[in-house]
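Figure 6 in text form: structure in, sequence out.
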């Protein structure tokens, strides 16, 4: 027979179970200043409601608006941020993964929501994460319309967290970019990455930190800074540059180079009757990729199908607009160059992307 519970025996609270409502409230107060900076005129109200509101009446100006959406996270790069106790740049990785998946079809990102799960809410740490997300939203031209912070003691360690999010954008149906618009002779324009971005960190951490025994605080001459600074370099956000490219040039398709590497991601926007040949001699492999390859003895094939190898975005642009496109991208501080061409291919080999030559 069970023993009845008396009021004096009931002393457990939500906080004693590991969840602090007070810390959560404090985190919200600290992040408000950053969220206010990441607004668009269509955003209604502020944070604190159950849902974010966005005035969609602007879509009336579209003949046939198509909504685009994307969801993603940062992956194991957060382990680097946690190890260095630096959390105000990881938001650029989240936003970059989200909005640059939208712009490849020509969609303008409108708003974004984030989700932060942590073992223990440290208000200043949560605010730093949101600061990065908000600043990245400003860089992308979208609103940070809402989000959620969840405290999960027992599931995550006290200093562990993960971040994810989703975003929504819009494109006029007649301006949708994609495989159907790609033509033989199109120039394949490569846009330089800022570094590793946010993919392949399981391989990078395994090779450099576990196998190679390197320390994040270690200065690496080839990198010109510490290993931790290099690994935490924020993802480049191409959204505004690529939207300008779509508006100002005859660009037919774009590809965001994330997990899977250059060839595999470009193949996703290639029609089956066409292929592309890319020339490695048109760019130098940035030092961090070479460091991973040398330290772990990683074969070029594995490196190229895991990491971006210096190319974070690609456009397929009419050849007569290639120079104009490169100049436009330079105006956005994005280094770009013609890396190859789109060609007609023999039956059965369509959609393939081939890399040739050796990096400079």
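Output sequence:
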């Amino acid at each position: 027979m069970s023993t009845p519970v008396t009021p004096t025996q009931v002393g457990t609270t939500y906080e004693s179970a590991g969840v602090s409502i007070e810390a959560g409230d404090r985190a919200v107060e600290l992040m408000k200043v950053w969220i206010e900076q990441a607004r668009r005129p269509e955003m209604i109200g502020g944070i604190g409601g159950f849902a974010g509101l966005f005035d969609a009446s602007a879509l009336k100006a579209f003949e046939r608006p198509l909504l685009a959406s994307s969801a993603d996270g940062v992956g194991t790069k957060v382990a680097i941020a946690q190890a260095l106790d630096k959390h105000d740049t990881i938001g650029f990785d989240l936003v970059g993964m989200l909005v640059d998946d939208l712009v490849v079809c020509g969609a303008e990102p409108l708003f974004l929501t984030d989700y932060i799960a942590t073992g223990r809410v440290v208000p200043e740490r949560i605010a730093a994460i949101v600061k990065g997300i908000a600043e990245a939203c400003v860089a992308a031209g979208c609103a940070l319309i809402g989000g959620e912070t969840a405290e999960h003691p027992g599931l995550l360690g006290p200093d562990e967290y993960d971040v994810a999010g989703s975003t929504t954008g819009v494109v006029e149906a007649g301006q949708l970019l994609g495989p159907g618009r790609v033509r033989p002779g199109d120039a394949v324009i490569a846009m330089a990455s800022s570094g590793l971005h946010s993919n392949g960190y399981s391989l990078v951490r395994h090779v450099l930190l576990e196998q190679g025994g390197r320390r994040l605080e270690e200065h690496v001459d080839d990198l010109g800074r510490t290993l931790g600074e290099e690994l935490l370099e924020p993802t480049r956000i191409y959204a505004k540059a690529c939207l300008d490219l779509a508006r100002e040039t005859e660009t037919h398709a774009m590809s965001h180079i994330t997990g899977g590497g250059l060839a595999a991601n470009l193949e996703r926007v290639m029609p089956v009757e066409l292929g592309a040949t890319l020339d490695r001699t048109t760019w130098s492999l940035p030092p961090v990729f070479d460091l991973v390859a040398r330290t772990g003895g990683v074969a070029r094939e594995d490196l190229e199908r895991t990491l971006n190898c210096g190319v974070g975005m690609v456009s397929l642009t009419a050849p007569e607009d290639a120079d104009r496109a490169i100049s436009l991208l330079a105006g956005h501080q994005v280094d770009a160059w013609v890396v190859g061409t789109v060609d007609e291919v023999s039956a059965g080999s369509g959609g393939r992307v081939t890399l040739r030559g050796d990096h400079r």
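Caption detail: The chain has two domains: 19-48+63-172, 179-356.
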